[in-house]
Specification:
This protein has one helix at about 5-70. With about 70 residues, it is an all-alpha fold. The protein is rod-shaped. It starts with a helix and ends with a helix.
């Protein structure tokens, strides 16, 4: 074993740990980006659902009003 080999192993271990840290940061960033996109889509779907419910209630009430009006004729 040469005198330089432990230093090479130590240097490789440091570089490998740095690689793992950078890789984990990249994964966390990607997961955060995906979470934000999914959350934005969820909010948009909730808004669409709310508008559809509101529109269906308005439509139902207008039908009920028209039906009641026709009954009075």
């Amino acid at each position: 074993m040469s005198d330089n080999q432990p230093n090479q192993v130590h240097s490789f271990a440091k570089q490998f740990l740095i690689f793992l840290v950078v890789l984990n940061l990249g994964v966390l960033f990607a997961m955060g980006t995906i979470y934000l996109k999914v959350d934005k889509q969820r909010l948009a779907l909730e808004e669409r659902e709310t508008k559809m419910i509101r529109d269906s209630i308005i439509y139902r009430d207008s039908l009920r009003r028209d039906t009641n009006f026709l009954k009075t004729l």
